[in-house]
Amino acid sequence: MNEPLPVHVLSRIAQLPLKPEPVVLTGERVVLRPFDHSADTEGLHAVSNGKAFTLRGRQAEAYDADERVWRWMSDGPFTDAAALGRWLIAHAARPDVLSLTVHDLAIGWPVGIATFMANSPRDLKIELGNIWYGPIAQGTGASREATRLMCRHAFALGYRRVEWKCNALNERSRRAALSYGFTYEGTQDAHMIIKDRNRDTAWYRMLDSDWRRIEP
């Protein structure tokens, strides 16, 4: 049997806008705020351009920006903050997207971006994507907490499904998805062409029932 969903579930559909409402999500390590071009872009470029970065006792040595940050993103590395800003503005302007800047509370600095995207209120599902962090934040727990805050918010709004997709070659993202509680569903071959290269996409999901077990 495939009975209609309960009224209290279906009623959520009309309550959710196509473009997610701006929100501030605060944790112990990070606070997520809607991307602000004038306030965030220079700082985001400083932590993602490959140059050494030191602030308040935390240090990242010079690194390969493509390898550490941009290899699996749709654009980048960015030679200057203006180019990064144009890319971020264009993504944030999409009608089904809310781009959030992740601010590291310990150093008081923007360290990455995490995005609600591919929003489908009609199906009560939404994706966490376009996620990247500068090396200054990698391995600090910032991504884990940001993901937890975003999942908590999405399920509190009434979504049934949160998705996580990544290039099937992106082992770091795949490990992260599993460690955060997402379930692997399969790989869609020849899904996209990114930077003139084929992208097979690995699909992960978390359901509201999963979330209740993870964070009761």
Question: What's the short version?
Answer:
With 216 residues, the chain is of the alpha+beta class. The protein is built from seven helices and ten strands.
What this model shows, in words?
This protein is an alpha+beta fold and 216 residues long. The chain is built from 7 helices and 10 strands. It has helices spanning 7-10, 37-46, 65-70, 81-92, 142-157, 171-179, 208-214, and strands at 25-26, 30-34, 53-55, 58-60, 98-104, 109-120, 125-133, 161-167, 183-194, 197-207. The strands form 2 sheets. The chain has an 8-stranded mixed β-sheet with strand order 1-2-5-6-7-8-10-9, sandwiched between helices. Strands 3-4 form a two-stranded antiparallel sheet. α2 packs across α4 (81-92). The two termini are 29 Å apart. The mean pLDDT is 97.
List the helices and strands and how they pair.
Layout (H helix, E strand, L loop, with lengths): L6 H4 L14 E2 L3 E5 L2 H10 L6 E3 L2 E3 L4 H6 L10 H12 L5 E7 L4 E12 L4 E9 L8 H16 L3 E7 L3 H9 L3 E12 L2 E11 H7 L2
Helix pairs in contact: 2-4
Report the average pLDDT across residues. Answer: 97
What's the number of extended β-strand segments? 10
The string of secondary-structure elements, in order, is HEEHEEHHEEEHEHEEH
- Spatial strand arrangement across the major sheet: 1-2-5-6-7-8-10-9
| Unreliable segments of 5+ consecutive residues | none
Helix content: 25-40%
- What fraction of the residues are assigned to beta strands by DSSP? 25-35%
Distance between the termini: 29 Å
Structural class: alpha+beta
3D shape: globular
Largest sheet: 8 strands, mixed
How many whole angstroms does the radius of gyration measure? 17 Å
Number of helices: 7
